[in-house]
Amino acid sequence: MLPLFISQIAGAQTTQSITNPTSVLSIFLSLLVVVGVIFALAYVMRRFNVTAMGSNHMKVVASMVAGTKEKIMVIQVGDEQHLIGVTSHNISHLSKLDKNLEVPLKGTTTNGHDAFKQKLVAAMAGKLNPQTNDNKQKEDSNNA
């Protein structure tokens, strides 16, 4: 009878230790520390671009959407360029390109991007300053 009574007291003490406010606070702070470490590591990985370390040998030169989940991509491996088809479940080698496409350098933009940028700036200038847009239209009509 005595061992049963002692085991019931021991079970009651362990239950009380979980509901103890300092124990709950300790568990909560431990959880916050773990979540904080995870976010800190994610920040460091993003800041120093750890995921793109081995990308010197393989680059995506061009990409085009062919459907909702399909893409056609040109990748460069070393000095060779390959045309591949990418779906959600499969990657297929379509062809090896005989003539390599130009690889845009980082920090430079192609003519398509520059043209889009100029059109966007002109459209935004017209919306932000409608008087300047109206004046341009008047000048164009006067010159014609």
UniProtKB/TrEMBL annotation:
InterPro entries hit by this protein: Flagellar_biosynth_FliO, FliO/MopB
GO biological process: bacterial-type flagellum organization
One of the record's GO cellular component terms: plasma membrane
Subcellular location: Cell membrane; Bacterial flagellum basal body
Broad class of where this protein is predominantly found: membrane
Segments crossing the lipid bilayer: 27-45
Family annotation (Pfam families): FliO
Swiss-Prot/TrEMBL keywords: Bacterial flagellum, Cell membrane, Cell projection, Cilium, Flagellum, Membrane, Transmembrane, Transmembrane helix
Protein family according to the UniProt entry: Belongs to the FliO/MopB family.
Name of the featured protein: Flagellar protein
Origin species: Alteromonas hispanica
Lineage of the species this protein comes from: Bacteria, Pseudomonadati, Pseudomonadota, Gammaproteobacteria, Alteromonadales
Gene this protein is translated from: fliO
